[in-house]
Write a structure and sequence with these properties.
The structure holds two protein chains of two kinds. By secondary structure, chain A is mainly α. Chain A is built from 16 helices and four strands. Chain A has a four-stranded mixed β-sheet, covered by helices on one side. The chains are: A mainly alpha, B alpha/beta.
Chain lengths: ~375, ~290
């Protein structure tokens, strides 16, 4: 009986083309796009801003500031407000009277994200500090009657000049591929929620489950027979996504995925993630009233769990409360585990707790699904 | 025999079945009639052990439904109103799957295929079948466990007349195999064609249970049905025309109608006295 149920699940799954595309091709494309897109994420020097400068002061100080901005590669000056992301207004009296400090005004013209604005503020502050120091130096020169050439160049204001950033081993340097692959593996695996719940609801709605029940098929078998085929699908997904990271991504001039951890750890964690994703799918399947509802809720749930769990946005940049909230997402447990495996050369002992939590979550949701299904079937579905 | 005694099933405050008692003899084709929501599907689901009941008792072929549900399921089969199979699988894959679930023999599998004329379409994907072929597959699955009782819940919905005829004939043949058939349908002529006995349910209660012949007996009506030889003029006459060649009248007005037909040179094929049909009877008792 169990063998027949498993075979049926495989056949249904293999013939659902849309589901297969969603399960295998989409995560692979995600990995490719995100790895290439994030390749230069931390190279802030390459980020530049189109700015418009409105000089109302027409003073030597304002002209010097204008010149500094013009010479800085991080800023492209334009006279067209439609092309500018930011407008800098140098007001009358700028730096003329130390007692009445006249501030510059910066107007954001484009829809810039908070993190990009932070980068702008840092870059702009650097320019202003250089200018202020140069101005103080000029005054000191006058007082001391000894001229120091290019004073700002002698000050260590660049991060590169202030400190050096290095890793203990060269292998430890995380590449964009290593950072994006774990996220999309976890996200992709949870996509089984949609096809699995849809198949299950169709069985429920078309009375196929009732028919199986009338044939003395136990409820646990109806639920658990779905676990194995989707575990196989999930493991295939992991293999394909790792393959994309290792073999396809380098073809796009992006670092290949380096797996520092053990294969055993990857296998255990992906197995635990499967059980967890299948548990969520079962719960959705018994709670949703139609396949359409399951597809919509499943999609939203996947994105929500991903967003909370740190798949979309790295957890370390989330607010503290949000970081605490992320701990409730099973995607977060899986993601942390994969990051440990890829970045910290994690083995089974390192990811064991995460795997255990995922297994427990999956089993609990499967058991709850079974209880709900039993109640619904007793009521005639 | 199926013995139902004082069966009650409630959904919240609503009585789906109320103090319902009925005996269904073995080896008959038994019709269950009732409007939508009368309680037919609930009754079938209870008899199959799919839905629990609140009070009363049910005995199916000497098995008690409360304590021997598994045994009852093993000798029963339900043909649900919906097409309860997998559209993505072929006819053969569906039959193989449901046969494996019930550990059916190869003989049962072959018999299901033959009785339901599925041999030619075995390798066709279920989703590509016509409405009639899908219905036949739905029924074939129900035969796989070699059941003693088959419950049909409106099995001919959305089926073309030709396929419907084939399905009805196959159901008649089950009686010859010794299978007890319990049949629900909205099509009264199907019940008339198939059933030996009929029970009429209304609002969860049994209204009438009798042999079909008794329900349609002369005592019920003084109506007379005249069947004529096809003639285009019939439609223009001052008579109550039921269908193209069928005129309905009463014994009192029979001579008058026959005279009209004679004057118009319309020949009579047959006259049936005291007829009623199940539909009229059903409407009368469920008013």
């Amino acid at each position: 009986m169990f063998q027949a149920m498993i075979k049926k699940e495989f056949l249904l799954l293999i013939r659902d083309r849309q589901a297969l595309i969603a399960l295998f091709i989409m995560p692979a494309i995600f990995i490719l796009i995100m790895s290439v897109a994030l390749r230069d994420q931390f190279k802030q020097e390459q980020i530049s801003f189109n700015i418009m400068v409105l000089d109302q002061a027409h003073s030597s100080n304002s002209k010097k500031l204008y010149k500094s901005l013009l010479e800085n590669k991080s800023f492209h000056l334009t006279n067209e407000s439609s092309q500018a992301a930011l407008k800098i207004i140098i007001p009358k009296g700028y730096l003329q009277n130390p007692k009445t400090h006249t501030k510059l005004q910066v107007v954001v013209l484009d829809a810039l994200k908070g993190d990009i604005l932070e980068i702008f503020k840092a870059k702009f502050t650097k320019v202003l500090l250089k200018r202020e120091i140069a101005s103080i130096q000029d005054k000191l020169n006058l007082m001391l009657k000894t001229k120091i050439k290019n004073p700002s160049q002698e000050l260590l204001l660049d991060a590169d000049q202030l400190f050096t950033l290095s890793y203990q081993k060269s292998d430890d340097i995380p590449t964009s591929t290593q950072q994006s692959v774990p996220s999309w593996i976890v996200f992709g695996m949870f996509f089984v929620i949609i096809p699995m719940s849809t198949v299950f609801i169709n069985e429920r709605k078309q009375n196929t489950l009732a028919r199986l029940n009338s044939m003395n098929t136990p409820l646990w078998l109806m639920i658990f027979s779905k676990v194995l085929p989707y575990i196989v699908v999930n493991q295939l997904q992991v293999v394909i996504m790792l393959g994309v990271g290792i073999f396809i991504v380098p073809l796009f001039d992006t670092p290949a995925l380096l797996i520092n951890g053990t294969v055993g750890a990857i296998a255990l964690l992906s197995l635990a993630l499967s059980v967890s994703a299948i548990g969520v799918a079962s719960l959705l399947a018994v709670l949703a009233s139609s396949a359409e509802q399951a597809t919509t809720i499943g999609g939203i749930l996947n994105i929500l769990l991903g967003a909370i769990g740190g798949v979309m946005v790295p957890k370390f940049i989330m607010p503290e409360a949000m970081q605490k909230l992320s701990q409730i997402s099973p995607m977060s447990w899986g993601l942390d585990g994969f990051l440990d495996i890829f970045l910290k050369a994690g083995d089974i002992s390192m990811i064991f707790t995460n795997a255990l939590m995922l297994f427990a979550f999956g089993l609990i949701t499967l058991i709850i699904s079974m209880i709900i299904l039993q109640i619904r079937m007793n009521k005639g579905l | 025999m199926i013995k139902i005694d004082s069966l009650t099933k409630k959904y919240g405050d609503f009585y789906a079945l109320k103090d319902f008692s009925l005996e269904i003899p073995e080896g008959t084709i038994f019709g269950l009639l009732g409007v939508n929501g009368a309680g037919k599907t609930t009754l079938l689901s209870i008899l199959n052990g799919l839905v629990n009941f609140d009070s009363g008792s049910v005995e199916v072929f000497s098995y008690d439904l409360k304590t021997q549900k598994k045994e009852i399921k093993a000798i029963s089969s339900i043909i649900p109103q919906n097409l309860a199979f997998y559209e993505q699988l072929s006819v053969k894959e569906n039959l193989d799957f449901f046969a494996s679930i019930q550990k059916s023999s190869q003989d049962s599998l072959q018999r299901s295929i033959e009785v339901n004329s599925l041999k030619e379409i075995l390798h066709q994907k279920a989703s590509t079948l016509s409405g009639g072929q899908k219905r036949r597959l739905n029924i074939a699955i129900g035969l796989l466990n070699n059941p003693k009782i088959i419950y049909f819940d409106e099995p001919t919905v959305g089926v073309d007349p030709r396929s419907r005829g084939e399905i009805l004939d196959s159901i008649k043949s089950y009686k010859e195999m010794g299978i007890t058939v319990i049949y629900t349908s909205h099509y009264m002529h199907e019940i008339e064609y198939l059933c030996d006995e009929v029970a009429i349910i209304n609002q969860g209660e049994l209204i009438k249970h009798d042999k079909l012949d008794n329900l349609l007996s002369n005592r019920v009506s003084d109506k007379v049905l005249i069947e004529t030889i096809a003639n285009a003029k019939t439609a223009s006459l001052k008579v109550k025309l039921l269908e193209k060649n069928f005129i309905e009248t009463t014994q009192e007005k029979l001579c008058e109608v026959l005279n009209i037909l004679d004057e118009n040179a319309i020949f009579v094929k047959q006259i049936k006295y005291g007829t009623t049909d199940l539909e009229n009877y059903f409407l009368k008792v469920t008013e």
